[in-house]
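Page 47, continued from p. 46.
Same chain as before, 453 aa.
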Amino acid sequence: MSRLSPRRSRTLPPSHTQRSPRECTNLLWTDLELYEREQRGMRIAATCKLTRKGQVWLVPSQSGHGRYTVSPDPEAPHCSCPDHETRGLKCKHLFAVEFAMKREQHGDGSMTVTQTVTVTETIKKPTYLQDWPAYNAAQTHEKEKFQALLYDLCQGLEELPPSKGHPRLSLSDAVFSAYFKVYSTMSARRFMSDLRDAQVKGYLHTVPHFNSILNYLDNPILTPILRALITESSLPLKTVEADFAVDSSGFTTSRFIRWVDHKYGVVRQQHAWVKVHLMCGVKTNVVTAVEIREKDASDTKVLPDLVNTTAAHFDMREVSADKGYSSVNNHEVIASHGATPYIAFKSIHSGAAGGLWEKMFHYFAFNRQEFLGHYHKRSNVESTFCMIKAKFRDHVRSKTDVAMTNEVLCKILCHNICCLIQAMYELGIEPTFWENRGSEHQSSRFAHFQGGL
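Result:
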């Protein structure tokens, strides 16, 4: 007889029409998320001691570490918990105080019950217009446009001089084949029919063997070429992008990491992953800079390289990042390029460092709503990772470290080309590559690739 695992009740929450307008302010939350926070607040009010001090309340943390200060001001409610300070949304502690205020028990045993009158108001949820004709045209012509743009991009690569022995595949054909293979999301063998079609259309001179494509991806000489192409593919949108966001995410691999847990005497394992740090524009989601380091690399130390790479080609106005990137040096690096850093601060931070750090800390502390209006542009980098992983998979097929790195770089370039295709139909942009690069510059740029593929 099978055992049924207990499940949490999935009772649907009341609709917004049964709540006050103040409880409906955050339209980004779903009804279920808001209902769950309300239930947690009710649990806190019922099981914990809430202390009132003047106009504020002290609410104990459920984790048992300290208390949070809650101000239930109807006009501007505030809580000192990280959830409310970072997101600016109604948290469970605010709900707990509301329940406590509705039912206060006095020392003589009498009880004061506060009744509220519910005012029903229809709030229209904001919508964002989608240019459906342009979107449909971009999606239905994407594959053919992708091949044409990728071919133009690869033509800017300086061909390597001939060598002795068997003639090698041209650099442009090798890079085109590797990118197109990753775009197809198929295995190298099943992808060969697409490659033959590309040759018929004139995008390839020679169709490589499927094992050769995998060998190209496993060649470390290809890595700097892929990085250069990612940067070049973002330049047609340099007049559009001025605000940028940065974050990191991982792509799972087929390899496992195993270790012995000495405390419990068991062998544990988890997937290895490729950690990617990238910076993208917040309007078109095009990736302007990417860094791939070891899987445990610190986010803070990677930000200067991403900023410097982007600033070399774009006029930067704002940079948004989460508190993992918050440091005095990162603020100064962003400001040195004429941009304003909107990086969230940790609870342990203060403005004692002075300078720009102190200025932005006070902005964050005393003008929170305006600061978060800029900071939440960071959500676009989350959308960028979602776009890449949904379209080109959240894992890599390759087995070696070099091949995994190159495969992820290919995914990012494929994403950039798709962003360009969308911009062609929505913004009327005609992408042009290598327009400011002379042959002399090209030769010096790729001179260190002379080892061959």
